[in-house]
Please model this.
Amino acid sequence: MSIRTRIAPSPTGDPHVGTAYIALFNLCFARSSGGEFILRIEDTDQTRSTSSSEKMIFDSLRWLGLDWSEGPDIGGKYGPYRQSERLDIYHDHAMDLVNRGHAFYCFATPDELSLMRQDQMSRGEMPRYDGRGLKLSNLEIQEKLSRSEPYVIRLKVPEEGDCQFVDLLRGKIVIPWSQIDMQVLLKADGMPTYHLANVVDDHLMEISHVIRGEEWINSTPKHLLLYRYFNWDMPQFCHLPLLRNADKSKLSKRKNPTSINFYKEMGYLPETILNYLGRMGWSMPNQEEKFTLQQMLDNFDITQVHLGGPIFDAEKLDWLNGCWIREELSDAEFGDRVAEWAFNKNHLSRMIPLVKERVEKFSDVVPMLSFMFSGMPILQEASFEHKKLDNESVRQILQYSSWRLDTVTEWTRDNLYQELNQIAVSLNLKLKDFLFPLFIGVVGAPSGPPLFDAMSILGPDIVRARLRSALVAAGGASKKQLKQWESDYRQQAK
Ligand code: GLU
Model:
């Protein structure tokens, strides 16, 4: 059997380091045994998927050097590789399951289902689908269909017994069927859910090994049923441990920047990021900390992955990046890389309008723009002292702005102005006063070049990270405080 693995990201946000980590292990597993590593875009959630997010996935994986041999952008003989272009395939497969009695129509309305759940909870039961669609007669189904009543297709799940499957790293996993819901396979709008599309594609694309994050373990019983109902061989499943913050919680952008773009914009080498991700749960046989992708490929053995949650530690990453820079880059390469990173004509030309009107000589440029080429400004609580804003208002402004900027999808000067101005209005603050903590957080000084232009050039990853770090420097927010702010913020957003 030839080995084929895949990464199947959903294009619904920033390209996540977790995606790169899973891609790296899939690539190493396939290539170290002469197999293929492919990229599939799982964009069936049409409300959250965007083409800009898809492009960022391509760009960031390529920047890291994680190339795929088949994918939406390069084609391949199992295409199309974008799920939104395969809808007929999923529809036909769902209908095939219905015709063979493995899946069924459900016409329950959202209101009926929420009532059902409320009843279950009031009886102290776990809320779950109660199988009402299974009780409909053929005639009733035909009548409802002829009246064009909206429906979904659900998966039949055994009522008794356990689901058992073998995970490459974890061995036998047993999950009682009673814990598995009768999953929707085809939604009322005709779109497939992740479960149906994922299994159909893994089979049709001849994926031999499904290597993914451990958050998918509980979905595997549904996938196993689908393979069984379709009479298909199952791929080998392998669930990798999730990346974690220093406090062992799941890696989240509240505690660590998670976008690959952030690491690129901060000036990490792609080689270091790959090397560091390679050390998440795996190590070289000689325990060497620094290694190239080729060395990882030469030594890769997936069975050596440790299941203890690997910690994504920013300080360790800094240390490793320093080693790479010192030990692997010649002076000429160092110069080229720095220029390519941010001192290139393209990037510099965007900043000229910010300073041209304000300088008298070229030597004024660097002090004015140093924040454009730096990481997090070094700030203390005292940096935020202001004659009109007390510390609580400062922290509130930083938190509200962070929340708001997390939702901005089109990062343009005008959008940033609009979004932030709305918060200033809702807080009853003059824009000038409102902007003070943002200047300190983003620029590191109470004034500077036009802030919205500067933020648009710095980009979402750096700005969000600076605001988060500014909030911590200004004193942070207790859980209680956050709760209060969250409800006030929501109130204002209405
Ligand atoms: N689309 C899923 C994701 O976003 C894929 C999960 C899987 O690999 O099965 O991670």
